[in-house]
Write a structure and sequence with these properties.
heterodimer, A: 241 residues, alpha/beta, Rossmann fold, 4-stranded antiparallel sheet, 10 strands, globular, B: 375 residues, abc type-2 transporter like fold, 4-stranded mixed sheet
């Protein structure tokens, strides 16, 4: 099995409103898959179905080989997730956050210690290990959240607009972490609306009003839409016809 | 199981970091205990009375001096006319107006009977009933006294005194009728239950507001682990509260502790488990801490006022008495009073244990079921 994620006619309706309209796609193992779309296009709902937070209305999907309907708890053991809302505990220290999530994912005490050391080193946060997370600057929080989402070495990491609200240099550093993680063979599923970030992905899909309107590598999409940048591709798709 | 320990540890760290919790566990119970035990007092003292003595006889002066001697009454005024007495009642200065008509003494002796008028402001029903009752008993003893005084011959003619039934009272379990003995254990029970309910109602919804619950929901945490992990620290807080409260009650009011504290603490654990379930249930049903507060407030008011803390459940209408069955505060107040004042043992409060155990199971099952990891 070569696909990390498969979706087939995956649909979510809230009453009369169809947030995600029968989307189908596949994400290969080890790939950085960009999930693009305008605000309200249905990206977050799609990611919430794949991570087991929302139950799909219709269609099929598997994540890490597990079915989203019947094996959502199994999926949860094998994925990491970082939402657009910063969701580590701000009133716990860096060390306590790592310890808590490590414990939740069933890591042994020794493993937790190793992970803590490793994360603190990678992020150069050793001196701040016992500082409350709420006091860190946003860019650091985001990189810490990403590291914590990886604490249990998941097969797939879902990132929902991970770099909102920080400057380009900080975003750049975040993407360096994403690359390093992808190099470990981990699959990255990332939503964003920064088009420069889209260029960093192996493949991207663009959602418009609940449907996937384009899918391919950044290079392919630019050729297909005869555009010179991803910006142009995006605007030509997202603009109402 | 290990996962549960990590959740409990995290909750403890957060609770200790929370600046509001420590004062809530120490200052709040002591202040409430002192304030409520002193103030929430059903004893009727200082009934304001206005006297209208239009007789100015030795009998009327005797009656006035008897009322003066009673510590239940404060004589606010002695006025000559009925009109002035009515005005004082109307104006709120007087709770009771007692009018002694002209020729009271003469009528009593000559006509073998005389009338007095008692006007009672019944807006405060309890004050009125109790005040009128006190005045009634003063009048009764006054009546006996002047009766004997007016009919010396009649009394001496009889070889035996007229038969009367004399009743001696003995107040068990609280011989001095110390109101604080009665209130303090009840208030303690109420305090622990309500504080724990409000604290837990705010807890899960807080994680929802901040967004951390989403992060929790994508982890393989089981629902029961999450709920139980939330419960254990609050159970500890509840037990600390009870300990602080009992110590303060003993030191400040010297409340009696007749029964076994084991029974009290065992019941406390069970009661907190029930209340925690309810608090977490509320927390699961709402979206913001504000909503949680409103819903919790609804329960708090009903639970306290219908708990028998201030007014006895037995004197409520039948339907209200049934409502007291699923009221955790009512049972805690009851157990506290029975065990502390009466020395009741486990067997005497087995009913409360049973009902509360059922509540604990029901509320917590609902809390686990209503906690949704998936929408």
């Amino acid at each position: 099995m070569n696909a990390a994620i498969t979706a087939h006619h995956l649909t979510k309706r809230f009453g009369d409103f169809t947030a995600v309209d029968a989307i189908s796609f596949e994400v290969k193992k080890g790939e950085i898959f960009g999930f693009l779309g305008a605000n309200g296009a249905g990206k977050t709902t799609a990611i919430r179905m794949l991570t087991g937070l929302n139950r799909p209305t219709d269609g099929e999907a598997t994540v890490a080989g597990f079915d989203v309907y019947r094996q959502s708890e199994k999926i949860k053991e094998n994925i990491g997730y970082m939402s657009q809302k910063f969701s580590l505990y701000e009133d716990l220290s860096i060390r306590q956050n790592i310890r808590f999530y490590g414990g939740i994912y069933g890591l042994r005490s020794k493993e937790i210690q190793e992970k803590t050391k490793q994360i603190l080193e990678t992020l150069s946060l050793e001196v701040y290990a016992d500082k409350v997370v709420g006091e860190l600057p946003l860019g650091w929080k985001q990189r810490l959240a990403f590291a914590v989402a990886n604490v249990h070495d998941p097969a797939i990491v879902f990132l929902d607009e991970p770099t909102g609200g920080v400057d380009p240099a900080t975003r750049r550093r975040f993407w360096e972490m994403i690359y390093a993680t992808a190099n470990l063979g981990r699959t990255i599923f990332v939503t964003t609306h920064y088009m420069d970030e889209a260029e960093y992905c192996d493949r991207i899909s663009i959602m418009v009003a609940g449907k996937i309107e384009a899918l391919g590598s950044p290079h392919e999409l630019k050729e297909k839409f005869s555009a010179s940048t991803m910006d142009e591709v995006f605007v030509s798709l997202a603009r109402p016809k | 199981m290990r996962r549960l320990l990590f959740i409990i540890q995290k909750e403890f760290i957060q609770i200790i970091r929370n600046k509001a919790i420590l004062p809530m566990m120490t200052v709040v119970p002591i202040v409430q205990l002192i304030l409520l035990s002193y103030a929430a007092n059903n004893e009727v003292k200082n009934v304001n009375i206005v006297l209208i003595d239009q007789d100015h006889s030795s009998y009327s002066r005797l009656l006035v001096s008897k009322i003066q001697a009673s510590d239940h009454f404060t004589i606010v005024a002695a006025v000559p006319s009925q009109k002035q007495g009515d005005d004082l009642l109307q104006g709120g200065e007087a709770d009771v107006v007692l009018a002694i008509p002209p020729n009271f003494e003469r009528d009593f002796i000559k006509e073998k009977g005389a009338g007095l008028q008692m006007l009672v402001n019944a807006i405060n029903g309890q004050q009125a009933t109790v005040g009128a009752g006190y005045l009634g008993s003063i009048l009764q003893s006054f009546n006996q006294e002047i009766g004997l005084d007016a009919m010396p011959k009649l009394a001496s003619q009889r070889t035996q005194p007229p038969p009367t039934i004399s009743i001696t009272y003995s107040n068990w379990y609280n011989p001095e009728l110390n109101y604080k003995y009665f209130m303090t254990p009840g208030i303690l029970g109420e305090l622990v239950t309500i504080l724990i309910m409000v604290l837990t109602a705010m807890n899960v919804v807080r994680e929802r507001e901040i967004g951390t619950i989403e992060q929790i929901n994508v982890t393989p945490i089981r629902k029961w682990q999450f709920i139980l992990g939330k419960m254990v620290p609050f159970l500890f807080i509840g037990l600390i509260l009870l300990t602080v409260g009992l110590t303060a009650g003993k030191l400040i009011f010297d409340i009696p502790i007749q029964g076994s504290l084991w029974v009290v603490f065992a019941f406390c654990v069970l009661n907190i488990a029930a209340v925690l379930g309810l608090g977490l249930l509320i927390s699961n049903m709402v979206d913001t801490q504000q909503q949680a507060m409103f819903v919790a407030f609804f329960f708090v008011i009903i639970f306290i006022l219908m708990s028998g803390l201030f007014t006895p459940i037995e004197s409520m209408p039948k339907w209200a008495q049934y409502l007291a069955v699923p009221n955790p505060v009512a049972h805690f107040v009851d157990v506290m009073r029975k065990v502390l004042l009466k020395g009741s043992g486990f067997a005497d409060v087995a009913y409360q244990f049973k009902v509360t155990a059922v509540m604990a199971v029901v509320f917590n099952t609902l809390a686990v079921v209503s906690y949704r990891k998936q929408e």
